[in-house]
Write a structure and sequence with these properties.
SH3 type barrels; 10 helices; 3 domains; single chain; alpha/beta; 5-stranded antiparallel sheet; 8-stranded mixed sheet; Rossmann fold; disordered N terminus
Length: about 450
């Protein structure tokens, strides 16, 4: 890589050239504080201060050092690019159960060179085996990249393409299960979308991601992938699920139902929780055993996949807040949106001042679904007058669905019909265990592992 492509400012480039330093060289930097820092010089990210050197330390973490605080820079070792080595599939691997990997992006679908810090896609089967060699004992892997995007760039069109591709892979390749590598931030949305778009499956569709990249000592990538592969092979259920760390350590990974899972922490490895439900299964390490926690699941089927992958993109998810103006709802209706999901307070309420605009939306053929910001529990709009007035206006109660799941389901329902009555019937029907008939004490507080079985 040319120094001018490194992203650093011109004066930093000149300083580095004066000592003969290039990107990926190992440097020793003396700081004004008296500390000495050794690490590999990385390219400057697209965002950030171009006058801050980024060094990868021996422990795998990156550190930024302002050039204004540097007394001396010395090159310890020049980087020599490693020769390309052909990676081959392990011998005899085709005798193991087939698991199909589909890459869509995210931390999980990239590999970081420990020496250089460079990021590479690793979504060929050969690269997956080299990254997670334990899989050589477990599965015969085939893999491909469908697209490579940030999870926040996922749209209903992407959900539709993933669902269509999954159906084709099941029909053509006949794997035990399909693993979708996905960024964690919107993983719950995609998991819910696939639950509605794909039914009567021969095996599970497993979304897997990583909270921490593979260059970090605390990376969760490998264990999550192993657990997802074991789920694909051994699970009796055939649903859209999310398989992620179930604790901060490395002894348990949980399998969450796709319509009941939510990312609940920005950075913890056990960020995902089942909401208003318990996980379907627990993968225990180092035993690599799967234990079914929830016996209410959709079993595998050989009757042929049902694919219904049309999603209406003209749906809004709105969080109510004190002082919210009714103009927001009016604006959405005037802009031609086809559906609205409200994230109301408590049992399913919004300010009384919003009710006329909600009523107007429904009268103009825009279904409105009510969910709760509380997440746990279910709405009950018959308790207080505001809820009753909203029901009279025609609002559809979202039961115990997550707001995100209700949003995805309304996109899916409107992809099938624009009839208000039919949309209401679909939203109140339990398609993929997104609605529990009753809220049980064991669903809250959020528990995992052994406690979930009590």
């Amino acid at each position: 890589m040319c120094m001018f492509e490194s992203g650093y400012s011109d004066d930093v480039v000149k300083m580095l050239r004066n000592v003969g330093a290039k990107v990926f060289d190992k440097l020793r930097v003396k700081h004004v504080s008296g500390s000495v820092i050794e690490g590999v010089l990385l390219p400057r990210p697209e965002v950030g201060d171009p006058r801050v050197l980024v060094l990868k330390l021996d422990n795998g973490y990156n550190i930024g050092v302002s050039v204004d605080s540097i007394i001396e820079i010395k090159v310890l070792e020049h980087h020599t690019p490693a020769p390309l080595v052909e990676v081959r599939l392990p011998e005899g691997i085709e005798n193991l159960p087939l698991v199909y990997f589909v890459g869509t992006g995210g931390t999980i679908a990239s590999r970081i060179d420990y020496k250089t810090g460079a990021v590479y896609p690793f979504f060929s089967a050969e690269e997956i085996y080299s990254m997670v060699p334990e899989l050589e004992e477990i599965a015969f892997i085939r893999a491909e990249t469908l697209f490579s995007i940030f999870s926040e760039d996922m749209t209903p069109k992407h959900w539709s393409k993933i669902a269509e591709h999954v159906a084709k892979v099941f029909e053509k390749e006949k794997p035990r299960g399909i693993i979708i590598a996905h960024g964690t931030d919107t993983m719950g949305y995609t998991a819910a979308a696939l639950a509605f778009a794909l039914r009567r499956l021969p095996g599970p569709v497993i979304l897997v991601g990583a909270q921490r990249s593979s260059d970090r000592p605390s990376s969760d990538a490998a264990l999550n992938v192993i657990a997802a592969t074991l789920t694909a092979i051994k699970a009796p259920f055939a649903e859209s699920v999310v398989t992620m760390h179930g604790e901060t350590g490395d002894t348990a990974v949980l399998v969450h139902r796709g319509v009941k899972v939510r990312k609940m922490h920005t950075s913890r490895r056990d960020a995902f929780r089942s909401v208003n439900d318990i996980p379907l299964a627990k993968i225990m390490f180092p035993e690599r055993k799967i234990r079914i926690i929830n016996d209410a699941y959709i079993p595998r089927s050989d009757d042929g996949v049902i694919l219904e992958n049309r999603f209406d993109e003209k749906v809004a998810l709105i969080k109510f807040y004190p002082g919210m103006s009714s103009e927001i709802i009016d604006y959405i209706v005037d802009k031609g949106f086809h559906g609205i999901v409200l994230e109301g307070t408590g049992l399913g309420h919004v300010a009384t001042s919003l009710i006329p605009s909600v009523r107007r939306a429904i009268e103009e053929g825009v279904p409105v679904v009510m969910t709760s910001q509380c997440l746990w529990g279910r709405i009950n709009m018959n308790v207080y007058r505001t809820g009753v007035e909203l029901l009279k206006a025609g609002v559809i109660p979202g039961e115990d669905m997550l707001p995100e799941t209700a949003y995805v389901k309304l996109c899916w329902a409107l992809g099938r019909t624009r009839s208000l009555e039919e949309v209401k019937r679909i939203m109140l029907s339990n398609i993929a265990y997104e609605i529990n008939p009753r809220s049980e004490n064991r669903f809250y507080p959020p528990v995992i592992g052994e406690d979930a079985c009590r």
